[in-house]
Amino acid sequence: MPNKDYYETLGVSKSASQDDIKSAYRKLAKLYHPDLHPNDPDCAQKFKEINEAYEVLGDSNKRSNYDQFGSANGPGDFGGFGSSGGGFGQRFNTGSFSGFEDIFDMFSGFAGGGNSRRSEIQVAGEDIEVNINLSFKEAVFGCEKTIKVTKLEKCNSCSGTGAKGGKEYETCPDCHGSGQARYVQNTIFGQMVNVGPCKKCNATGKIIKTKCPDCNGKGHTKQQQEIKIKIPAGIDNNQVITMRGKGNASVKNGPNGDLLINVSVENHEILVRDGYNLLLDLPIPFTTAYLGGKVKIPTTDGFYELTIPALTQPNTVFKLRNKGIKYLQKEVYGDLIVTVRVEMPKDISKYEKELVKKLDDSISLNSYKKHKTYQDKLSKLED
Ligand SMILES: [Zn+2]
Ligand SMILES: [Zn+2]
């Protein structure tokens, strides 16, 4: 169970479109923005909650994780940075919509106020997307996989500063370390003040005196890493597991990106998955349908003898309760739904023909309820 209802926080329904969510967020963010309510801790708290909710619901991957697993982190608890310390806008998505820029656009009008909260520009590291193939069984029962990912990691030698020993730098004199500078432009309307990335320090807030030799001043290095992924039982094809903070390191003071794992599941040789139910199209000889018998069928946990009662009609459906797939994060199982397809032989010998002829003679028309009704209607049409 999610401990917070993000939908409630944003005042939208669970079926709201991404556009609805974005517009609800913008409305609320405008209402509660701290620049409008200085020294109001309630508003600040509310603003924080709105941002937290939007950070999840505004991202369709995270939203889908939240809907399915009750957490944006996906099924496993891989809290890379479950609660990073930053205040406002602690994380900026690298996707098409950037929370930072958006809020910034909206409030550039109030920008005259104290902007101490944005003392540093933070940009989250990029997400990494990987594909993983699972066998049918691995998806049904869950498993652990180790994958190799090449990703940006913060350079250890310089603690990500890019400066030798992590010390050989000074605060940028133009932006005083904020990474943002004000540029005054003279226009026909008068002076316009624009706030933008500081050009002197490339928005890093730092001027490096001596570059770190290990990362050549970049503050990060590319490394291959083995990452263990816990695949939860019940995962299905095309689902995405998000491991927060396991993506690329940020190149600008922000948190790591996420690792997005696209799941592909191999088909079972016989069973077909339909959500948490399994479907089985079961061909049986017409004699089994007629006389009854036992037929071996596969289930997720071995084989099972299905009893076919005598006189089973074609396309009869048998539902085997709880023989389907375990739900994600729940001790609930789907069903195995067996549809009987009665099969006639492809050939008939002289001997078999005689046997069936005798059988046919012995069965009265009244035993075939539907056929009998049909014949009765037909004879009325002929009258
Ligand atoms: Zn600067
Ligand atoms: Zn370094």
Can you describe this structure?
The chain is α+β, with helices and mostly antiparallel strands and 383 residues long. The chain has a domain at 272-382: Sandwich (HSP40/DNAj peptide-binding domain), CATH 2.60.260. It is 25% helix and 27% strand. It has 9 helices and 15 strands. The chain has helices at residues 6-10, 18-32, 41-57, 60-69, 99-107, 136-141, 286-291, 350-362, 369-382; strands spanning 128-134, 143-154, 169-171, 180-187, 190-197, 206-208, 220-231, 240-243, 259-265, 272-274, 277-285, 293-299, 302-308, 317-320, 336-343. The strands form 6 sheets. Strands 10-11-15-14 form a 4-stranded mixed β-sheet. Strand 10 (272-274) and strand 11 (277-285) form a beta hairpin. It is elongated and about 105 Å long. The model is unreliable at 77-119 (pLDDT under 50). The chain binds zinc ion (2 copies). One zinc ion binds next to loops.
